[in-house]
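subagent[fold] <- orchestrator: predict structure for attached chain, return tokens only, no commentary.
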Amino acid sequence: MNVTYWIVVSLLLAIAFVIIIPPLWKKREIQAADSDQRNINIAQERVKDLKLQLQIGGLSQQQFEEQYAELELTLGDDLDIEQNSSESSSQGRWVVPVIALCVPLFSVFIYLSLGEPDALVKAEIKQPQQTKSAGQDINAMVAQLAKRLKQNPDNAKDWIMLGRSFKYLKQYQLAVNSFKKAHALLGDEPEVLLHYADALAMVNGGRLAGKSSELIFKALEKSPNDVTGLWLAGMAKAEQREFSQALGYWQKLEGILPYESDSHQQVKKLISTIKKEMSGVQVTEKSAAPVTKVASAVSISVQVDIATEIKQKVSLADTVFIYAKALTGPPMPLAIVRKQVSDLPLTVTLDDAMAMMPTMKLSSFKAVKVMARVSKSGSAMPQKGDFVGSLDLSELAETQSVMIVINEKI
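subagent[fold] -> orchestrator:
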């Protein structure tokens, strides 16, 4: 049990006491209801009745006088009682200390006997155990699939499932091998082609050139409106610096995605960025300036480590993105390297050769933000739950070194 639990219990008990105790503690005046007047009224009614009985002959004069005298005597005795001596009753007060003492003790005793005092602590421990359990479940499923595929190697669905499992476990080369088997069995199925292309890109550090691009465009031939295919096709064309074609794919994707969704917003930003870059390139080509000043190449040596408390919350197979982006400007990375948590601590170099667009190099900007992010999903886009570290460089030199510690959660 922790401090929060006891604070909540104490608060609830205090509220209960405020409701129950004041009525018990308060003195209650037991006042006689106007008994004098009531007794007089009764006596008067009785006298009328006696007189009526006398008139009709139901009583003799002697009987009437005897009963009348008796009535007077009784009324006199009643009126002698002090009606205004209202008694102050405090008989219920002894219950107050009993309640104040017994209720908390009894409640705690019942909770300790029937409840689970360590539930909050167990809940804190449960999450990492669940994560570990999920990883074990995936590994067990992979082993089961591998065993099944030895017996029936022509089961394409199992190869696809195996490839997805390897992607989840960040074992990208094994994922490539699995999707290659599925492709050989199913041919140019769009789903298989795109999974295969994505796994190849992961193996190649995120680059889509070569075999990955070929697979992507084959998939689009079969399924022209595939969301994943359009996204990857745009990235492939941007990587090849064919900006107008990349723009075409992303504009088509923008029209398909749910309006104002996160993915829709991301595509809008990419479209805006690539339009600006295309405009800048066109202006440069039309310019008649005889002399063009070329910026010196820039490289940043980045040492990356992860805080101890964060390292306990991630898996060694989780993806680490190390990248630089403009401090003020488009969100697209200017240079990026992909690693895994198991590689940390490490040193990487970000330079102009990593730029996806000619005008989106490190040397094109005066100030950049250098970041390192752990992604459990392996997604290039930041997501809630990722862990990050960052550093702002207000002035870029041709070569410089920085150190980043991953120590915050998004």
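orchestrator: received. Logging for downstream: The chain is about 55% helix and 15% strand. Residues 82-88, 282-295 have pLDDT under 50 and may be disordered.
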